[in-house]
Structures are given as structure tokens and as C-alpha cells.
Request: fold
Amino acid sequence: MSYTERFTEVHKLLISENDAALELGITDTPWVSLMNYHRVVAILHVIDMGAGATIDFSIRQATDTSGTGAKVISNTAGVTTHALTQLTQAGGDVDSDCIIELRTAQLDVTNGFDCVSIRITGAVDTCVVSYQLYGIVPRFPPVGVTEWTEVVAPA
Reply:
């Protein structure tokens, strides 16, 4: 089977941070609108963790890109979803690669929630991480590629 669709035509890099020193406390990324995507994927790469460090990583939702009404994403039973199990240095989570997938229908669309942000919480000691957020399954492909320094694709 032959595919002609390029990765960069249907995956939009919305947020990217490389080799970030995660300080103690909460780090929230800027809010981004998902109105042009059916799905989103958040990826976390744990590069280093200080002694006894922990990392919590989740996707949160809001009604606009300023974070209005920000809240966790939960299922119909009120259980928080779209959060990783806490990563720990003691548990051997250094060099971990983790991913959270979200369908935009899982947001509180009834109440107008269509924006997301990544929340990373570090505790005990500093960590070094990289993370990305991709909008995928665009409503109107192809998506732009201005966030990429270079794109090499088959002709």
C-alpha cells in the first residue's frame, strides 16, 4: 500500500520545548485552540531527574487561549483523565518517553471548552524534560509548516 500524505500535512506542531530545566512547582504551557483539529497528542521525554524527583504531566482544558475556566479533563464519572501516572526518579523513570492522546470530543464541548495546555509539575528536585503538543487529524488539511526549520519530504 502506498501513502502520499506527508506527516507535516496532517500533524501540526503546536507547542515544543526542548531540554527544559523543570523547576519545582507547576509549569503551564501557553493555551492553544483545537478548533481545527479532531485529536491532539502530548509527548514527554524525561531526560534527567534529580534525586527523589517526581513529575506529573497532564493536558488541561479551557474555553479560550487566555485560559478562561481552566480545569482538568474528566470522564462522566468525574474521574480525571489525560494525565500520566506520576513519574519518579526512584521508580527508574529517567529516559522515559510518554504520550497522552486526546480526542477533542473528550473536552467539555457542551460548555465551550476547545483549548488545551500542558501542565507539568515537578517536585523534590529539578528535572530536565522535552515536550511537544501536536494537533492531528486536521479539519482542513494540509496544515502549515512555519514552525519547522526545515522539512524534507518525498517529491
The chain has a mean pLDDT of 92. The chain has one domain: 13-138. Residues 30 and 51 are 29 Å apart (CA to CA).
